Amino acid sequence: MLGDHAVNPPVVLAPMAGITNVAFRRLCREQGGGVYVCEMITTRALVERIPKTLKMVAFAEDEDFRSLQLYGVDPDVTAAAVRMVGEDGLADHVDLNFGCPVPKVTRRGGGSALPWRRKLFGRIVRQAVEAAKPYGIPLTIKMRKGIDDDHLTYVEAGLIAQEAGVAAVALHARTAEQRYSGQADWDAIAALKQALDVPVLGNGDIWEGSDALRMVEHTGVDGVVVGRGCLGRPWLFADLEAAFTQGADYKPVLPVLGEVTKIMSRHAELLVDALGDEKHGCADFRKHIAWYLKGFPVGGELRRRLSMVASLAELDDLLGKLDPGEPFPVGELGQPRGRVNAPGKVSLPHGWLESRDDDTVPEGAEMENSGG
Ligand SMILES: Cc1cc2nc3c(=O)[nH]c(=O)nc-3n(C[C@H](O)[C@H](O)[C@H](O)COP(=O)(O)O)c2cc1C
């Protein structure tokens, strides 16, 4: 449950900046039930009504549970953004991002650096929850384990958020230092579940429907949040639904190449629609191509041409050169995809670690939408 909204199956598409726009969400929603979170929106840009930001808060008419992630570092600005979401009827659910590990964000004290400053974190979450209340909007948070293994925050932050009245807490079970490397620590998710009474959502390394079942069994979480596993594989949401309804014996969707290319064409068309023209839609689609074709025999030259595709006709022409009967490369199942970068020391503002109870709002930490 998220507030009054039953989430069935208990699956959430993780917010991914530059990915989970209205086009990608539609493709995923068509595959199965769950909550499908919009791209992250910066609170300051929202309250300043920056046109580009307002355009990103786009939902399809049939999105019956419009879920929006906000990023903020200032309790007042965050509350103002949440109020605006309520007043303008922009969304039905708001999630706050405290997981972004991008250096330009943590260096200013934002994203995954913020929960360390527990008083400031508490103020942001409390004010956001209060702002959401009159509109009946459930407010959730998404966070990492902490800054690094010596500076873990997740249990304390979870308790603070619970006390503030959040509807659920999601944990991406890596530290900021780990970025996307190594394995997510599902034991930490289990520990958080033990510590909290509010629903806990587990996130990290769900590549298949079976992984989701394993995570639930291992941690007791109320739901799963799925990010990179669905890149180039929107049908993963069909698998997730099948796994939750049929159990471990579900049959995974294994599209042949011709079916994959059909979904690719559709994704590109939806992006053209969402972004307003073919040039921008096709340019945006390029980042998805390698994910869709991962493991299929495509050939270097065709891959190169696809990576520069500039129109829908060209895309269809190039995809038409592939063998539609080629079976799904089952060796890809269960394998990490998307970002898998190396760990890196977390850039923080001067003196950040030494003053946990300082609740000064960090300056300059509201960046362009960058995700995390
Ligand atoms: C390209 C990309 C963009 C992301 N953007 C966001 C974001 O805007 N907000 C957020 O909370 N997490 C963001 N994340 C993190 C994911 O939501 C998720 O927590 C992470 O990928 C771990 O889950 P996974 O193992 O299922 O991928 C992003 C991840 C990726 C790969």
Automatic annotation (TrEMBL):
Residues 327-372 are annotated as: Disordered. Signal peptide: none annotated. The keyword Signal does not apply. It is an enzyme of class 1 (oxidoreductase). The keyword Flavoprotein applies. Its EC number is 1.3.1.-. Residues 13-316 form the DUS-like FMN-binding domain. Keywords: Flavoprotein, FMN, NADP, Oxidoreductase, RNA-binding, tRNA processing, tRNA-binding. Its cofactor is FMN. InterPro entries: Aldolase_TIM, DUS-like_FMN-bd, DUS_fam, DusB-like, tRNA-dHydroUridine_Synthase_C, tRNA_hU_synthase_CS. It catalyses: a 5,6-dihydrouridine in tRNA + NAD(+) = a uridine in tRNA + NADH + H(+); a 5,6-dihydrouridine in tRNA + NADP(+) = a uridine in tRNA + NADPH + H(+). Catalyzes the synthesis of 5,6-dihydrouridine (D), a modified base found in the D-loop of most tRNAs, via the reduction of the C5-C6 double bond in target uridines. Belongs to the dus family. This is tRNA-dihydrouridine synthase.
